[in-house]
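User: Predict the complex with CO-5-methoxybenzimidazolylcobamide.
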Amino acid sequence: MPSEITGTDNGSDVRLDLLSCDQVYRAERAFQNLMMHEQTEICLAVSGAGVCCVLNQELPCKAGDIFIIPANTPHRFFLADRDGSLSVRRLRFRIGEWFEGEIARPESPRYCYGVFNDNAILACAPLNVRMQEKVGALFDDIESERTEQKAEWTEAVRFDLAQLLINVGRYLNCSIKNGSSVSPAESQIVLAALRTVKERYGDADLTLVSLAELFSVSPSHISKLFKSVTGRLFSDTLRSVRLDEACRLLRDSALTVEEIVPLCGLRDIPSFYKNFNRYLKMTPAEYRQTARQSATEAETLKNRTEEKRMSILNEISENLQKGKAKVVKELVQQAVDEGARPSEILDQGLLAGMNVIGEKFKNNEVFVPEVLVAARAMNMGAQVLKPLLAEDGAQAAGRVCIGTVQGDLHDIGKNLVKMMMEGKGLEVVDLGTDVSPETFVQTAIEQNCRVICCSALLTTTMGVMGEVVKKAEEAGIRDKVKIMIGGAPITEDFCRQIGADCYTPDAVSAAEAAVAFCKD
Ligand code: B1M
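Assistant: Here is the predicted structure with CO-5-methoxybenzimidazolylcobamide placed in the model:
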């Protein structure tokens, strides 16, 4: 597969290196804040529906939509609809030297940032017209390499993307040229016209004339602008948007052609049949049948992907129980590469395995050596996740100390809490296990820690936490430090009872609480 696309725009080189082509991944239910640094991402919605959030703008997103999210664009990502069905394929590119040192600014003609929806250009992208063939070849290669996902990588998506890139290239060229060509203001008119077409395709009165009236320009002027910016005739664009919608309704609803035609802003049924045949090379009934068939295939594929993901998480859990640290490490890496979320690998793979071991330990089915090797495997798997878990969330500043209390040697939970806290930007002084109350307090004083974090796993050692609170009072620092506690036997009630400041049940909430304390 070629790893690079190059092209020339006004004499400057544009280079995009293909970094990765992700497996199709399921969009999150919760938004993730992402900042693309040196990467441009082309995202293709391949099935389902939802929204895409870029630059605080929320755009509806459905199968076939394409989003180009360039470097330096703070964006929230994709959110699935309530049925959680949105799948997105992501291609990541690193931008070559062309954009070095430039900051994404909407007004900059050379730097482009933006969002694209089907053929509607809502902004521009760092690609140009001459990339058409190379991009086409690239996608051909990607497709042939991923034949198993062919159902989702449809002809239509490829066509749309190539078309989009051409249009964007044209737009770029126009914006860059001064004088005789289209000015940025005129480009904005065309962009607004495209948005209008997307929003009002169902209005049969939407024509070039009514559009020109809307933007207070003459029909011939807007027609010319439209052609030079998008490379297409206005009438072709409007027709293709209407036909797209008709296709969607044929695929997703039980409506008849007679019902669909007016909903798409069309009046004449015979000419709808004629146009449909001309552009899609099949009848509406044939299209309906083919589209539904591919939707079923896509669904099967989605289920297979889900099964595969579950099976790798089970494998992680099982190998952890057997103490196969190296295998666990490799499987965790594989799960990450295949797009599983770090938190689900942790919860459904590593911690699930550790819980089984815990139960068996309780029932005398396994003994200390087995538990120890499982714990080692858990730690090795968690190491792979560390940088990924750290990427999540806002950064904070502050220093805390953490340790497992005196008499207690369990450190897996404590290490996870530490990992999450470091991920949030906190500086963590790790005191290890078997830590005396004096050491906690002394460290807080000497190293100026805002929070003391105590972990305990044994009912026989949890009492030491009360001692830590007392020692902090005796040392006169109780009003200067917060004391956080956690571990399997700890409860909210116990926290109140010993006068600690906060109990949290897991590593994520512990890190959040520590961040909040450091901000106070
Ligand atoms: Co031990 N052990 N163990 N053990 N061990 C338990 C805890 C036990 C519940 C097993 C059982 O009987 N089911 C039981 C305690 C019973 C009780 O007191 N009620 C027990 C026992 C009895 C013992 C020994 C006494 C056994 C013996 O020698 N006869 C002995 C004690 C040694 C000692 O500490 N002095 C012992 C030894 C060991 C090993 C050394 C073999 C090993 C520890 C290896 C290591 O940590 N490096 C071990 C293990 C691994 C376990 C189990 C199986 C797993 C613990 C674990 O790591 N869980 C455990 C059974 C179980 O819990 N299912 C068990 C995964 C970890 C991520 O969870 O630590 O709970 P956890 O952390 C969570 C949350 O609690 C929270 O965040 C984490 C993740 O989100 N959290 C905090 C933790 N700290 C926090 C701090 C916070 C906030 C949240 O704020 C500061």
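Residues 189 and 215 are 7 Å apart (CA to CA).
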